[in-house]
Predict the structure.
Amino acid sequence: MRVNKILLVSMCAVLFPSIVQAASLPAVKVEKISDRVYALLGPIGLPDKHNQGYMVNSTLIIGDKGLIVVDTGFTDKIGHHLARTIKTISTKPVTHIINTHHHGDHTLGNIAFPGAEVISSAKCREALDTTALEWIGIVENLTGMKFPNTHPVLANKTYPADSRNDITLQGVKLQLWLPHHSHTAGDLMVYLPNEKVLLSGDIVVHDETPQFRDANVKSWLGTLAAIQQADFNKIIPGHGPLMNKTQFTQYHAMLDKFYQGVEAGYKQGLTDSEVRKSLDLSEWQKLHNYDEFMGGNINRAYLEVEQANF
Ligand SMILES: [Zn+2]
């Protein structure tokens, strides 16, 4: 009986490999920015059964003797998926990882790059340490899958908030730009002066609703104003397609207008649900995850305005 069962399982494996093997992850969309820089774009959307949690952008920077990877995906499997794609571009080892903030979709794939030095803001390190299990729970819930080999790998090199650090890694000049509390309290952007490219993390997302869950919206707007002044041609956003300066200007204006609308509504004495009805959200409605994020975003911004005016 036992032998028959084993025989049956192995016959199934031959005849119907898809039943036995897990479905493959969506392909990484590789966009070459320069000989040294490649955007590794993930699908748009929230984690689900189909994307298996893969819905984030990463960046590969090719150094003299090793590679730098910025953001590594939500799970160990996504990290390995990125690593396999990276091997088709360069056979050099991954020596450095940079995390733009602590959210699981950007950090939990770190484990797929053993031996790499991990760089983040000090606040990102702290927040990942306390919330990693929560993030693993989120991706397991949304995908209906288990990720027993996904564990946080915290930074071994950190930078303080509100700093800009010009560094050279593997012969590549980078600026690590840690703005004041924006998408999270521990954001870190990477500016590449030779390419004039900004890797923004989720401070900038494209065709996707920015999420205010851990944000300070007002100081986020200050960061967007500073980006507007920066010398860049292209942004690799945290989610969605590459963004040019004109598209960034539109994104910046959309967030500015939103906050001003909430502020004006509050000052007229409107409640948060009345403010919601008073806002022109036509541009926001075109974005992915509008229904999932926008209610929370309005509450968050309203609360912030209320506290500022208290
Ligand atoms: Zn994200």
About this structure: The mean pLDDT is 94. The chain is about 40% helix and 20% strand. The CA atoms of residues 91 and 273 lie 54 Å apart. The longest strand covers residues 163-169.
